[in-house]
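User: I'm designing a mutation panel for Leucine-rich repeat-containing N-terminal plant-type domain-containing protein and want to avoid disrupting the core. Could you give me a predicted structure to guide residue selection? Please restate the sequence first so the numbering is unambiguous.

Assistant: Good idea. Sequence first, for numbering, then the predicted structure tokens:
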Amino acid sequence: MATFFLFLVTLLSSLVVSHQQPLLDSAEQDSVYEVLSSINSAIPWRTLFPDDLCLSAPHGVVCDYFFEQPNSQNLSVSTTLPQTVHVTELSFGYVSDSTPNPPCSPNSTLNPLLFTSFKYLRKLFFYKCFTETPVVMPNISSSSFGANLEELVFVENPALVSSLSGIIGNFTNMRRLVLNGSGVYGSIPDGIGNLVNIEEITLSRNQLSGSLPFSLTKLKKLRVLDLSQNHFDGNVPESIGNLCQILKLDLSYNGFMGKIPYSMVNLQSLEFLDLSFNRFGNFGVPLFLGEMPRLREVYLSGNLLGGHIPEIWEKLGGVSGIGFSDMGLVGEIPPSMGVYLRNLCYLRLDNNKLEGKVPEELGFLEFVNEINLENNNLSGKIPFSAKFTAKIGEKLKLKGNSGLCIDEDFGSGKNNKVILEKWKLCNKSDIPNPVIFKEHNSVSSLSSVQVLSSPSGLMILCFLSLLW
């Protein structure tokens, strides 16, 4: 107890002294001013923040204490006191009122001091700073920069130009690498496999190309991999299944081809999968999706996979979003999608070659807010109630199916404010009646819902009970 009290007294004394003596090294403080000026030279940073920047700094400049390692021969309290203070985070670009980082100007530049003066930097963040004047990022892959860096984040900086190989260094402590909406180009270097602690790699909306290196799949701690909207091509390697901790995989809007790797079935933690708008083809919707019960969203649109929609939905009750547009799908829409996908909010099956009736089971989905079945060959009665169509509104999209029709009561409810296309009225032949048949000593019904909703439904059920 006495030792703890002595520690508190000594710590308070050191804080009092800190008001008299600068905490931050003067050279490091000058570097911060220079970097701030390069981001926005119109703001008088030295005048607004004349004191020690580790005591009074603009939001986005963060410092931290660093301690000497205790000496085994001298375990006194003094060895646990802070010895130095350094800048550990630099964040630029206004994001919101809760994070009012130093605002960038249209002519912001990237000061080289960023990569030489902050040896203890853990986070470097830029948001919409380099938007007009081209800014070239120096090659830092072989420099000493980033020995302690955990987050390198550049968001929406279209004028930032750099090769990815010039950025990927030996960042053994790196947890987040985010470079989206920038002018980063080149291929993914093999050195990315050195980021052994990386948890997120987001490189979307750049000018990247080439194939995926094997070293990428060595990153056992990776949870987010987003390479969307680039120019990658080639086959996705089977080794992608090694990313056993991954939660989000987004390879959309690239030129990947061939077969979707079966090894993805090993990604049992995966919740979000987007492979849409690539060149995967002629192998059908992967059946292994039905063996990934943690999936919440799956998007395969724009790949000519072909084939039928498989019966894989029984174990996927947690799925909330499905995008299967423009895939060359044929056959009927499985009613099981409406039976098992109880959390479904978003369903797109448009621009395929689907035929047959719209399953009435889709109308029982409690949380759905968009169903797009446009431009198929669907036919028969639109089975949705007035209440259901009113809930979804204009996001119930059925046009481009000339065989669909409505009965006389469709849309007659007072609460149905949905304006659908002017559908033709169904003929009696378009509205199926319940058909009861006996086969192999068992009685079946084409639709129990139809039986219960028919005028004589109860009589039929009573008759069936006598037969059973």
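For picking mutation sites, this is relevant: The first helix runs from residue 2 to 18. The radius of gyration is 31 Å.
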